[in-house]
Write a structure and sequence with these properties.
This protein is α+β, with helices and mostly antiparallel strands. It has helices spanning 23-26, 42-47, 51-59, 98-107, 124-127, 131-134, 217-221, 269-279, 285-300, 323-337, and strands spanning 8-9, 32-34, 67-71, 79-80, 92-96, 117-123, 145-151, 154-159, 164-171, 174-179, 225-229, 234-237, 242-247, 252-259. The chain has two domains: 8-261, Jelly Rolls (Sandwich), CATH 2.60.120.10; 265-337, no CATH class. The protein is built from ten helices and 14 strands. This is JmjC domain-containing protein.
């Protein structure tokens, strides 16, 4: 049996607090552990006491809107994953009142093999308005989306997110295993159009990796970084870094912040990827090579010098894209897709 290399520890940064996060942290291109970042949050103190204490605290803010919950069968694996042929999943998805989810977590908290109960990304400002007034990070002008995740022991397969991310452990313990973006081919990513929660995931079972089926995973582990976080700790995950997340306690709450450096009106790069698969992937090789040159010229290596021969007033979509120009481009693209 091949011995996989142990991931190296994610570098820890000292001197961060919820009210003071240095710019070099927010601009980092490497993951960072921020020990004790949210240890002074009231939510961290109260939600770590017990499920009932957490339920009482969160009830102060909950709007009564049902939350989305994922539930597996009792005794099944803790990984929220696919069925055998990737045509479905090993869990059920539904909605329920938050207090009902917390009650179920409490009822199963002493079970030897409880069902996985997992509340996915829940927008705090929509579902728990007021929570942020007492529990927040000072992130300046970034205007991040703040989400909450609640559940018991579970494993979320390695996936990437386009935004930068600070994930804050409020209750329970979590283990993060991260990989740089260039490990894509070594992580054996599954379908992009049928996913457990929106993002394509690694098909490798990190608890028992099958190197016969996934031999390149050994190479991925040479580049892995990991950290186990306690309540109050946080991890900064840069844009596009793959991250496998394991909730280690019978009750866990995570709050995370997502933000991008580009304006929202430019849209999601994943939409461009899907369109490229539709329009380009199955072209003959010689045509794809030509389109690769065009993408390199207009997208990946575009610069001001390449436009100097065009009068500025006539550059159209080749100039800096404003909100109005983005709206026109989106409308034009929709018409073309028809």
């Amino acid at each position: 049996m091949t011995e996989l290399p142990a991931p190296k520890a994610i570098r820890a940064v000292e001197g961060c607090s919820a009210s003071a996060i240095p710019d070099h942290v927010l601009q980092s291109r490497e993951p960072l552990v921020l020990k004790g970042l949210v240890k002074t949050w009231p939510a961290t103190a109260l939600c770590s006491e017990s499920i009932s204490s957490a339920a009482t605290y969160l009830a102060k803010f909950w709007t009564q809107l049902p939350v989305t919950a994922y539930v597996s069968e009792p005794g099944s694996e803790t990984r929220l994953f696919y069925n055998e042929d990737c045509t479905g999943f090993n869990f059920r998805r539904g909605t329920a009142p938050l207090h009902q989810v917390l009650q179920k977590l409490s009822e199963h908290s002493s079970d030897a093999e409880p069902p996985v109960i997992y509340v996915g990304s829940t927008m705090v400002d929509k579902f728990l308005p007021g929570f942020r007034a007492d529990n927040d990070l000072a992130l300046g002008d970034l205007q991040p989306l703040m989400s909450m995740w609640i559940g018991n022991k579970s494993r979320i397969s390695a996936h990437y997110d386009f935004p930068d991310n600070i994930a804050c452990v409020v209750a329970g313990r979590r283990r993060f295993t991260l990989f740089p973006p260039d490990q894509l081919s070594n992580l054996y990513i599954g379908p992009v159009d049928r996913t457990p929660a929106g993002q394509a995931i690694s098909l490798v079972d990190f608890s028992a990796p099958d190197l016969t089926h996934f031999p390149r995973f050994a190479e991925a582990m040479k580049h892995a970084q990991a950290a186990e976080l306690e309540p109050g700790d946080a991890v900064f995950i840069p844009s596009m870094w793959w991250h496998h997340v394991e909730s280690l306690s019978n009750f866990n709450i995570l709050v995370n912040y997502w933000w991008t450096s580009s304006p929202d009106y430019l849209g999601a790069p994943s939409a461009a990827l899907m369109h490229a698969m539709l329009a380009l992937r199955d072209l003959p090789a010689h045509q794809k090579a030509i389109w690769a040159q065009l993408f390199d010229h207009y997208v990946f290596n575009s610069d001001q010098q390449s436009l100097d021969h065009i009068p500025e007033a006539g550059r159209g979509v080749l100039s800096n894209i404003s909100k109005e120009m983005a709206a026109w481009m989106r409308s034009d693209l929709i018409n073309k897709l028809k």
